Please model this.
Amino acid sequence: MAWTYLFVAGLLEIVWAYSMKRSAGFTLPMPTVVTIIAMIASFSLLATAMRSLPLGTAYTIWTGIGAVGAFVVGITVLGEAITPMRVLAASLIVSGIVLMKLASSS
Model:
């Protein structure tokens, strides 16, 4: 169950990163509220996952899901540039997430 909590926490990290961008520096109420709620939920699920997963594994995977997810949302939703170097960087992050999961004994 910890892996499910961790995965959902990572997805919520993507949500809060995107809504933070949409909040225009916390000047728009609805995206600001979504950001705060998603942050609290994401951190809570991360903390729950960390009860049984190693710190390094949980935090690395949570951060990686958020980073790669925000990268994909930036490209697909916000029209950010897609360059070979950025794709390579995201691929390396995904590789690290996979290796961290494989290295975990939980």
Q: What stands out?
A: The helical segments are 2-22, 29-49, 55-76, 84-103. The mean pLDDT is 94. The chain has one domain: 2-103.
